[in-house]
Amino acid sequence: MTPGHHARLTPQAPAIVMGISGEVVTYAQLEDRSIRFARALRERGLQPGDHIAILMENTSSFLEITWAAQRSGLYYTAINRHLRTDEVQYVLDDCGALALVASESVADVVADLDLSRLRAKFAGAGEIDGFESYDDVLATTAGSPLENECEGREMLYSSGTTGRPKGVRKPLPGTPFGDPTSAPVLIAKGMLDRSSSGNVVYLSPAPLYHGSPLIFSMSWHRAGATVVVMESFDPRRCLELIEQYGVTDAQFVPTMFVRMLRLPAAERERYNLSSLRSVMHSAAPCPVAVKRQMLDWWGPIISEYYSGTEDVGATAITATEWLAHPGSVGRPLQTCHIVDENGNELPAGESGVVYFEGGRPFEYHNDPEKTASVANAHGWRTIGDMGYLDSEGYLYLTDRKAHMIISGGVNIYPQETENTLASHPAIADVAVIGVPDEEMGESVKAVVQLVDPEAGSDQLAADLIAFCRGELATYKCPRSVDFVAELPRDPNGKLYKRRLREQYWDGRDSLIL
Question: Are 326 and 294 in contact (CB under 8 A)?
Answer without folding.
Answer: no
